[in-house]
Amino acid sequence: MIVKNCVKTSVANKDKSFERELLMLVVNKITDFIPNKIINVDVDVSEFISLADHSFNVPDKIDMLLGAEIFYELLRPGQIYAQNSQLLLQNTVFGYVVSGSVDQVAEDRVHCGLILDDNLNKTLKQFWEIESVDVKSTGDTEASLCEDHFVRTHKKNEEGRYVVSMALSRDPSCLGNSKDMAVRQLS
Fold first, then answer.
1. Dihedral (CA of 73, 74, 77, 83) sign
2. DSSP 8-state class, residue 39
3. Distance between the two ends of the chain, CA-based, in angstroms?
4. Residue 51: inside a domain, yes or no?
5. CB-based contacts of 106: which residues, under 8 Å, 6+ apart?
6. Phi, psi (5° rounding) for residue 131?
């Protein structure tokens, strides 16, 4: 369903006792004809009550689909259950509307659709090629140097603890006898 336009319009019943200004979306088609087959009605109910749609039993397009923001304003007290059927007549500001299910078997329709769009497939492929990030390893980067250093200086002992060798840039003898001084500073 593609929205073609948006329209501000006034919706009213016949005697203008109900009138609202609504913002509506314009589409080509909401659904197939409803009902999908003619419903055989034994009694002309319009003799007894005022119907919102006198040809409710004949397949036709939907004129307007109203949403929840106005739906409950439309309802009025009064429901009639049609005898020997599952139809319900509900009173509204427009007159009685008919809802429910009918015992008629609808036509068996099988819809199978296949959309093959090579352009779409190519476009998607190009999109993912553009979005993919090439990771180039230069071999002598700072990251690889860090990893090499880690592998050389870290080991796991038998207890599962890591043993890290001291990172010295010179021979350890250049430290002199600093152990006693370090212990005193920590105490």
1. negative
2. P
3. 79
4. yes
5. 36, 37
6. -75, -20
The pLDDT assigned to 62 comes to 85
Give the percent of the chain with pLDDT over 70.
84
* CB distance 163 to 155 below 8 Å: yes
pLDDT tens per residue, range 74-87: 999 999 887 777 88
How is residue 177 written in tokens?
A: 């006898």
Instruction: Examine residue 109 and state whether it is found in any structural domain, yes or no.
Output: no
Q: How many structural domains is the chain composed of?
A: 1
What is the pTM for the complete model shown? 0.52
Which structural domain, as residue segments, surrounds residue 54? 31-101
| pLDDT, mean over the chain | 82
> Is 130 a domain residue?
no
* Long-range CB contact pairs, 101-110, < 8 A, 24+: 102/35, 102/39, 104/37, 104/39, 104/40, 106/36, 106/37, 107/36, 107/37
5 found inside a domain = no
- Which amino acid appears at position 28 of this protein? N
pLDDT digits (tens, 9 = 90+) for 98-152: 888 876 555 666 777 776 677 777 888 888 888 776 666 665 678 888 888 888 8
